[in-house]
User: Fold histidine kinase from Salicibibacter kimchii.
Amino acid sequence: MKLKTKLQVSAALALILFVAATNVFVYVVYENDSWSSEVSRVSNQAEATAEQLSAAIEDGSGLDGIIQANLPGNGMVRIINYEEETIHTSTREPRFSEFPPHFTNAQASRTLVTEDDERFVFTYKPLIWENGNVVTLEVSEHLQGMEENMEVLRYILVAASFIVLIPAVLGGWVLGAIILRPINGLISTMKNIQEKGNLKPIKSKRRSRDELQQLIGAFNEMVERLEREFDKQDQFVSDASHELRTPLTVIDGYATMLKRWGKTKPEVLDEAIEAITEEGARMKHLAEQLLLLVKDGEYLQLDPEHFHLDAVLQKAARAMETATQRQIHFQVSQAPTVYADVEKVKQVLYIILDNALKYSDKAIDVSVWQENRAAYVSITDYGAGIPEADQARIFDRFYRINKARSRGDGGTGLGLSIAAKLMEAQGGRIKLDSKVGAYTTFTIEIPIGEGAEMK
Assistant:
């Protein structure tokens, strides 16, 4: 069953139950009120009849005239002695005599509803009769007018129910169409995406901020994010293909050269083997970096431990200083102990230090300190700097500031992407601050972690 049909059926059923409950309530209240009114009216009539009969008995005047004058149109007046025998009966409907007499020395009233839904009221009033004995004056009446009124009320309530339900059902249909319109648009857009692969947001003119509008907004945000991810994926595949094409071309060229002259020219053999080995190593390194980037950060294998960040940083800086014969100034404001994967932190430090040494001929400044529950490492080089337009993309895969940079003076463009991914996996981050022609500073933030204390 469609959601629209469910909404309509549910709304109709709820309305039917509400209208039925309301009708029952109105009917019961009106019936009880009518009973009270009729009982009170017949009781008053019995009271008046009893007073007139008492006065007539004292005066010794005739009683039949008083009884006939107070006889209800469809009712009965009768006198009952203490033995529950009828002394006198006056009625226009003989069937009233079928009701058994009832003696009581107290004023009382009762109602009766027959199987045919006929309503009767019986009122009893004690009275001193002509012989001085206490008798019961019974005044009873068939409430035909009330029956007619209740029947009319039933017709009115049923008719009113249909009159209310018809526009309510139509309104539920219209309301369901209005509510489901954005959902139908969402379904149509999803089918279009599935069939044609055409990512597009849902256009909505709704100004309210209800749940449907929030659903549309969440879907549009998801579509925009998917578009960005697909664009990045396409760019990644394109860049990866481009990066792999060059070493494969070199390997293919040298393999062809080996096939032609490798057996007769030793110098060609040595050159080809060296070139193929170098390009093979480059491809292996690139493949390892690509595999690392493909992994989601939360699934990276982490082996956290407590270690002194300044010692690890100093060791990495001295190693790079020895390898490049470049000067690195090392400064420790505080010596924090962190809880992280030491090997992955080393990898990040080597990537940032390598970039700093690669793109600057001057000395490198390195410092470490702690603020609150995080440790910080800053690595500053004084080279050409990074233009502001490139800073937002510096951590993108395969992104190079100088697009014309050769393979000899530039890397694959994956190092900073890997460094950022490794830090995000451990709850850290890398920030960049650079000024063209002045400096470039990468600041690495590493959470202290539970149980780690500054020493």
